[in-house]
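Materials and Methods. Structural model of YegS BmrU family lipid kinase. The 299-residue sequence of YegS BmrU family lipid kinase from Helcococcus kunzii ATCC 51366 was retrieved and submitted for structure prediction as follows.
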Amino acid sequence: MKKAMIIYNPTSGNESGEDYANKLRERLIDYYENVEMKETKKEKDATNFAIEACEKSFDSVFSIGGDGTVNEIVNGLVKSDTKDKPILGVIPGGTFNGLARVLKIPQNVYTAIDELDFSKYEVLDVASTNGDIFTLNFNIGDIPESLQSVSIEDKTNFAVLSYVVNAIKQSTKNTHHNLRITLDDDRVLEGKFSHLVVTTSSTLDEFDFVEEDVKRTDGNLHLLLFKDSNFISKLSLIGDMIKGDVDNNEEIDYMKAKKIKIETLDDEKVKTGVDGDISHNLPVELEIIEKAIKVYTLK
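The predicted structure was written out as tokens:
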């Protein structure tokens, strides 16, 4: 008997999470004999539901929520001891929906539900930071601070615009962090950097940021080190991201590694972020987890 689990955040889409889940269930019952709906009420609920889906041999798990809900589910899938994991379906019900954007899944929830193909999937790498799993990117710099300063009300009312406005506010700062970065236990970099981004692929959000032909899942972490933090440099970076020319920007160092350790050389408390949420303070250890999950793609 084929089984599917829908894990949904009821606050998704201006409190429309349950409506989205019911709409998805209407489509799934044509493909699965059993469809269970699980509502998240507190932190880690989605992780525990995903572990339950693994233990009970569900064929598929569907996420309705934002990047935080997706990451909780992926944590459950990756950390489960079961061999055969459910395939993940991502329905974008959050503010930014990073993984959905990378997979080219429509941002309209109902369109996404209609266009997912339950016979096609892609295998993705994920990564860990101090043992916690994330799907797309880790960052240090203005971005974590701008995310933390966005209120829940602004996230709901203004969506991506709230992040952009806060990021622009933070861009007037000239903050640098004195860091030691160790790549694969044998390459060590030390210096002051304004930003640091580590991604699980050569794609950042919807942009392929390097010219070289790198598959989205290539078994490496991709490290971007930003040397300067002035506003003009940041505008230049945005342009190079759109053109896929980040690796030729003189203000950015680009490297690949399987493991990356990041430490602060000062006494300051350095915040980090993953996939739109606040994460651990430094020090952190990042590691790629190859071919960790299967995700449904479009028709």
